[in-house]
Structure to design on (594 residues):
């Protein structure tokens, strides 16, 4: 026999193995549910509307980023609004998403399902990360349910995929808020702080800068801002009783501490310079003359359950509560979670310090009206937040943290009520997920990719879409006549990510009136007017515009032009060499300049 004995597995090792298996099971479950939400991994995302914006932002990011000595974007260019030029600062930046897309674009080319895989990764990280942060206080089962609630069952967020991907990507924001609450609970209950956890908490605050600031990361920063006074008060009371020795008993330097310091420095280098550049660049524009739309979401939506016959697909509640409805899931994390949060709050109501930051943030979010009561604009990161309903993104986090404090009742009536509430929660999750699962994920067609490949091979630096669309989500450009077919054409510029040439039109989340003056000076609204009859002077202007600026050709939209206009372009510049259909915009032909 061998003299080597097999070492027995000690109890804490068995527990560790089981715990890792449990985390792996949660990751697999979340991943499978996330794959069901995404559905299609065959081609890049595309529906001819906002869905195309986010790959396009990644393309702009990849084309204009320099990394040394620190990351910087070269945003003053004429890659769109060609040849006049524009400051590209008002794109929907999400720096981590943009780094991801830029790396994939450089390694594998422009036509891959990169953002679908990215979205699955974010949901898995949200679920598992939240569970890991909360488990020491609430156990695995409760923490895992919380992780699912803030990831694949965050109804508002999953229904924002893929059309508003800047809003549905919230993993670091969720983890930052959860870690802040965990830190508050540790301090209030006098659990000695560990150096590694404090460094993770700091790192998460840097990581949120990789997400959209006004509609995502700002909520994490707001929650921390509201928590810090309570945290400071609790630390002071603790310090008075035990001194620093009791507070930092777990501050033992080690490899994990140095690893976290390295991650903090790396994240600061990746995100902080870009955040400063975009924030200060955007604040340099004065939008006082551009009116804000009253995009308000009523708190009454908290009471609308996600149940057949009652959810917002079956009823238009806006006509009764008089708010602005944007998308499914707006205004509520689900009635079941709201009820659980109410029960949890009642059980900790005397521990004011534990729920005060959550309650304060809920009040600020629920009452927010961008015109009449701009509560969130107390914080600088919400300067350009123009829709109250988008706070729905973090409602599962805030209500979920309150719900964690629910203790299972000991008497029969309470147990029956508890089973009923959990049944309601499960029914809502099932209903919302099944509804979402049946919504197909739009992807670009192979025919569009072939069309763009033809354009990519043509000599010349730019392509003119005619008609084109130059507009901001704030309405600038539309009323001036620079986007006569907004619904059908607001995203056509994004397809240049596949053919890599400059373009004339573009949609921005915000556009300043000064930025469209070159178009008005050259009388583009007259040329873009539906049914406009071109004069000899118009053709001469167009000839010189195209030739002098080295255009490769023209994308013509036959469905948006009269037969006379289309024939005029063919007589002047020749017949098309490629054709396809863009989603929303319809038929499209490419006429090269010879």
């Amino acid at each position: 026999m061998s003299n080597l004995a097999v070492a027995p597995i000690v109890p804490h090792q068995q527990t560790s193995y089981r715990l890792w298996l449990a985390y792996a099971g949660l990751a697999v479950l979340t991943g499978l549910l996330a794959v069901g939400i995404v559905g299609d991994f065959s081609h890049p995302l595309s529906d001819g509307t906002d869905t195309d914006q986010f790959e396009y932002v990644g393309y702009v990011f990849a084309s204009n980023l320099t990394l040394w000595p620190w990351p910087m974007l070269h945003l003053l260019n004429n890659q769109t609004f060609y040849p006049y030029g524009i400051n590209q600062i008002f794109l929907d930046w999400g720096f981590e998403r943009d780094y991801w897309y830029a790396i994939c674009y450089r390694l594998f080319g422009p036509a891959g399902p990169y953002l679908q895989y990215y979205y699955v990764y974010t949901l898995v990280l949200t679920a598992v990360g939240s569970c890991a942060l909360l488990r020491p206080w609430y156990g695995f089962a409760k923490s895992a349910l919380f992780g699912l609630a803030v990831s694949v069952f965050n109804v508002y967020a999953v229904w924002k995929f893929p059309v508003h991907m800047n809003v549905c990507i919230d993993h670091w924001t969720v983890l930052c808020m959860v870690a802040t609450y965990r830190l508050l609970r540790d301090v209030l209950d006098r659990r000695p702080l560990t150096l590694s956890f404090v460094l993770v908490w700091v790192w998460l605050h840097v990581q949120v800068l990789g997400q959209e600031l006004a509609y995502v990361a700002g909520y994490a920063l707001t929650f921390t801002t509201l928590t810090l006074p309570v945290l400071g008060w609790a630390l002071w009371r603790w310090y008075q009783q035990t001194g620093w020795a009791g507070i930092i008993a777990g501050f033992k330097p080690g490899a994990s501490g140095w690893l976290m310091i390295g991650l903090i420095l790396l994240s600061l280098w990746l995100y902080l310079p870009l955040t400063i550049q975009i924030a200060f660049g955007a604040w340099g524009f004065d939008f006082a003359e551009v009116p804000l739309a009253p995009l308000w979401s009523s708190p009454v939506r908290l009471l609308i359950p996600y149940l057949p016959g009652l959810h917002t697909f079956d009823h238009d509640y806006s006509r009764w509560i008089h708010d602005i409805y944007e998308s499914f899931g707006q205004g509520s994390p689900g009635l079941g979670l709201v009820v659980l949060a109410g029960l949890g709050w009642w059980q900790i109501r005397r521990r004011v310090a534990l729920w005060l930051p959550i309650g304060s943030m809920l009040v600020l979010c629920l009452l927010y009206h961008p015109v009449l009561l701009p509560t969130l604009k107390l914080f600088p990161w919400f300067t350009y937040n123009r829709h109250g309903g988008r706070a729905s993104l973090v409602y599962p986090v805030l209500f979920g943290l309150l719900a964690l404090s629910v203790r299972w009742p000991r008497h029969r009536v309470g147990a029956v009520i508890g089973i009923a509430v959990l049944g309601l929660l499960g029914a809502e999750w099932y209903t919302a997920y099944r509804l979402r699962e049946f919504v197909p994920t739009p992807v670009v067609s192979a025919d569009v990719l072939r069309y763009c490949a033809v354009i990519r091979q043509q000599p010349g630096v730019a392509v003119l879409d005619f008609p084109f669309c130059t507009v901001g989500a704030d309405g600038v450009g539309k009323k001036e006549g620079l986007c006569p077919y907004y619904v059908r054409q607001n995203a056509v510029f994004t397809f240049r990510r596949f053919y890599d040439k400059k373009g004339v039109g573009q949609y921005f989340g915000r556009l300043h009136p000064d930025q469209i003056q070159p178009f008005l000076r050259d009388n583009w609204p007259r040329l873009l007017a539906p049914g406009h009859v071109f004069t000899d002077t118009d053709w001469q202007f167009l000839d010189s515009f195209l030739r002098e600026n080295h255009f490769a050709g023209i994308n013509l939209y036959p469905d948006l032009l009269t037969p006379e206009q289309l024939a005029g372009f063919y007589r002047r510049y020749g017949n098309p060499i490629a054709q396809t259909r863009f989603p929303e915009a319809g038929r499209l032909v490419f006429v090269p300049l010879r």
Q: What stands out?
A: Residues 1-12 have pLDDT under 50 and may be disordered.
